[in-house]
Amino acid sequence: MINGITIKKTENTLPSPLLMIPSLPSTSLYFRCPKKIDVIEFYAISDGRSRIYKENDGVKGIGKQIILDPKKVSYMNLFINGVLQPKESYEVGRGVIKLKTVDVPIKGAPVILQMFIV
Fold first, then answer.
1. What contacts 82, CB < 8 A, 6 or more positions away?
2. In this predicted model, what pLDDT tens digit does every residue of 26-60 receive, in sequence order?
3. 91: burial class by Cβ within 10 Å (0-12, 13-18, 19+)?
4. How confident is the model at residue 95 (pLDDT cuts 50, 70, 90)?
5. HEC secondary structure over the chain
C-alpha cells in the first residue's frame, strides 16, 4: 500500500515459445595441405638407331637435362612418341635410359622421361 492505494503486483512472464530450435553439436573440420611434388623431365629426340640415351643426348636450349638416380625418385614415366611405355620395356640408371625392346624408336620420335619426387 502506497499513500492509501493498494497496488497489486503482477509478474511479467513471457509465454514459452511454440517452436523449439534444436541445438546442434559442433563439428570440427580438418584440412590437410597437399604435399609438394617436384617434377623433373628429360627430353631427347630419337636418332632411329640408339636404345641408350644419356644426359648429353637431351634437347639443348630448354634448360639442364638430367636423369636422376631412380633411388632418389618416387616414381617415373617414360613416353616414346607420346605413348607411355611399360616399366618392363626400359631401365633407368643415374644419367642413362636403356630400352629393352627389340625395335628402336623411329627417327625424330620424342623420348620423354618424367621423374616425380614426393
1. 110
2. 888 888 888 889 999 999 999 999 999 999 999 99
3. middle
4. very high
5. CECCECCCCCCCCCCCCCCCCCCCCCCCCCCCCCCCCEEEEEEEECCCCCCEEEHHHECCCCCCCCCCCHHHCCEEEEEECCEECCHHHEEEECCEEEECCCCCCCCCCEEEEEEEEC
Distance (Å, whole) CA 8 – CA 5:
10
Burial 5-39 (b: 16+ CB within 10 A, else e): eeeeeeeeeeeeeeeeeeeeeeeeeeeeeeeeeee
Q: What residues contact residue 47 under an 8 Å CB cut-off, 6+ apart?
A: 107
Query: What is the C-alpha to C-alpha distance for residues 31 and 18, in angstroms, rounded to an integer?
Result: 40
Amino acid at 5: I
Query: The C-alpha cell of 19 is what?
Result: 517452436
Neighbours of 106 (CB within 10 A): 10
